[in-house]
Amino acid sequence: MAFDNTYSGPPQGSASGNREQLLDLTTVLAPRQAPVYGMLPKQGATADLVEWTVDGLRDATATNAVVEGADVGETGGDSFVGQFGNLARLGNRLQHFRDTFNVSKKQELMDSVTPVRLQEAEEKAASQVLRDIEKSICSDNPAVTGAPTGGGASGNDPVGGQFRGLGAWINNSPAADSVQAVPTPFKTPVKNILGETTGDDDLELTEARFNSMLTSIFEETGEQGDHVLVAGTEVRNKIIDGFTRVQPANNATVYNQGDGTEVNYNVEIFQGPYGIVKIISANPKCLPDQKRAYLLDPSLLGYAEAMSMGSTMLEDQGGGPRGYIDTMGTLICKGPNGLGKITDFKD
């Protein structure tokens, strides 16, 4: 008896539309093509609007002293306090990334200097999708809700949903887009950002200014820890050439993806006043410009995937094998107040 199965095809047969996951390829390419995406912990997503909650601690007090023998609620005792009055909900939109590939039957049979075959086309499409994810993460994009109309010059074209990028999250004056604005207690302090205050473009990027940004983050979070500076070429050259407390790139750093896979980086180390800063070169093709850098704490970030990157083969209708690579996910930012950004400085 004939039946459809998972092993007939591709390019033809019941398996032609089956999806192939490309997790290993993504892990290998991440340090080179998408360093920010590669370091982010991964988790699942099951809704178009991915939401999470953030909270903070109250100000410490030096007068927390209970009178001996006083019960809770009495004079001299402490009263009942709701502990989650500052709990806030943040969210981001899913973005669907896709790139297609096809190779003619004749080209599949030909020898050429550059292999132009199905597997190479598939891998190239996957690399390009990965770079698109990285560029979206590093962008200043606002969150956009997908809609059947509202796009294009006419305003009548369909609109694809997109997530809010790091440049919009790390912002001292965050505005609402298709998700709510960051509440004031969690927005990025102005001292965490170098380049957006009037006159910053006339100031050089010095070690003292960089330390002031680290100090501001420490004053905000109260925690010493390791940060990662993902830097454009101009920022990285300024730091490596001009800062005194930088160790050469012989340090290996491993970021766990949350699913057992690991991504390895070689980094330079800056000995900051409140912990070390690992310096990683950003993909220059994925930044707004080369004066951009993000000072990140990976524990305050994440990437939620509704659909991991995979390849789907379509039916060969005579012209040759074809298919597409796609994935769907969004950036999670749990604490913009604990992150920093460099956008401009004097050359």
Could you describe the 3D structure shown?
The strands form four sheets. Strands 8-16-13-9-12-11-10 form a seven-stranded mixed beta sheet. Strands 1, 2, 5, 14 and 15 form a five-stranded mixed beta sheet that branches. With 347 residues, the chain is of the alpha+beta class. Strand 14 (301-314) and strand 15 (322-333) form a beta hairpin. The chain contains seven helices and 16 strands. The chain is globular. Mean pLDDT is 83; it is low at 1-8 and 10-17. The relative contact order is 0.23. Helices cover 20% and strands 30% of the residues.
CA distance, first residue to last residue: 74 Å
Averaged pLDDT: 83
Question: What sequence of helices (H) and strands (E) makes up the elements?
Answer: EHHEEEEHHEEHEHEHEEEEEEE
Provide the helix percentage: 10-25%
Q: Reading side by side through the largest sheet, how are the strands ordered?
A: 8-16-13-9-12-11-10
Low-confidence stretches: 1-8, 10-17
Largest sheet: 7 strands, mixed
Shape: globular
Estimated structural class: alpha+beta
Proportion of strand residues = 25-35%
What is the CA-atom radius of gyration, in angstroms?
24 Å
Total strands: the figure is 16
Number of helices: 7
